[in-house]
């Protein structure tokens, strides 16, 4: 079955849901078992790792349907749904780490993941070393006897550096470490982590899977070998997701294969248009042919999403505000992956240590939504005009 078909059929079985096309939204804590035998059988099935309906927290038709759909598309053995992308990161890490262990973490990782390393994991006695995204097989030189997790995210958050995941995974596996990937940017549609050596893949399903900016959701998908650790960790931490959010996740999932090509196309057009602007001094987008990560993106990825960044010429804050405050189509806000365009002034200097980012550099992260590209360009064009005016006014005042 091809991916577009999987997106439509995976995890659904109308014959088991009164013929309804979509899975039911099961609101449940208690599940009533009619007999002692039935209760024992349900518990035994759960112990055999079957998708048994035993208790609300341990899975319902709504959660299993969503999880099975994600596992099928991403190509993993099983998936565990958790309440946010960050919860998914947390489960993946805690499943494989204990006091005294060491983590190799990419320097361009999503900021809150770094906070998990510097906060909870440090307190627990887990040490983290941050490596540069382009390290490739040289990561072997950073492996210590106690390195238990090698964590990758490609492209990197905010600056979109690619990583040679097969090379990194091979080096990590040679020393017995688990490879965890944050695969949110590409979604399960455009990168297949389990064919590239990854053991555990994390999705902030909040982004493209939900796809409509109306729910928080995360998934942890694992190989057959890694699955028991992931499952037990999520269970022991007590994670479960409310059925309405799971429903929104599976609802968004069904249109992933038509939404993403449009985000990809508009993102490329917008990035290319921005690149030609005199105010823009750099574009960070691995699907652009002259991006340093392009060759790896082309080799390993099946497509691109709509998230990228540009660097602007030095601009005082009042001129940035003049540009950003009055945009009509680009909302200013965190998260991404919904149908709408976004722009955020980002500050990588807060997060980087292996390669510090100069705080004076101005980085704008864009999410290309599903609007018409001409409306988006006109909106930004007007923003650049307001910026220019504000710069002129500032200059006149200084003169
Ligand atoms: C947003 C994001 C997360 C966290 O997802 P939440 O659902 O907001 O917790 C994790 N990784 C990446 C790359 C993200 O962009």
Task: Please write out the topology.
Blueprint: H1 3-9, H2 36-47, H3 61-74, E1 78-82, H4 85-94, E2 102-106, H5 111-123, E3 127-131, E4 147-153, H6 165-174, E5 178-182, H7 187-190, E6 200-203, E7 218-222, H8 227-236, H9 243-253, H10 256-275, E8 280-284, H11 294-300, E9 307-312, H12 317-325, E10 342-346, E11 362-367, H13 373-398
Parallel strand pairs: 2-3, 2-4, 4-5, 5-6
Antiparallel strand pairs: 1-7, 6-7, 8-9, 9-11, 10-11
Helix pairs in contact: 3-9, 4-5, 12-13
The chain binds pyridoxal-5'-phosphate (PLP).
Total beta strand runs:
11
Helix content: 25-40%
* Major sheet strand order: 1-7-6-5-4-2-3
Main beta sheet: 7 strands, mixed
Oligomer: single chain
Beta-strand residue fraction: 5-15%
User: Which secondary-structure class do the elements indicate?
Assistant: alpha/beta
Mean pLDDT: 97
Rg value: 22 Å
Number of helices: 13
- What spatial form do the alpha-carbon principal axes imply? globular
- Name the poorly predicted regions: none
Intertermini distance: 67 Å
Bound molecules: pyridoxal-5'-phosphate
Taken in chain order, the helices and strands follow as HHHEHEHEEHEHEEHHHEHEHEEH
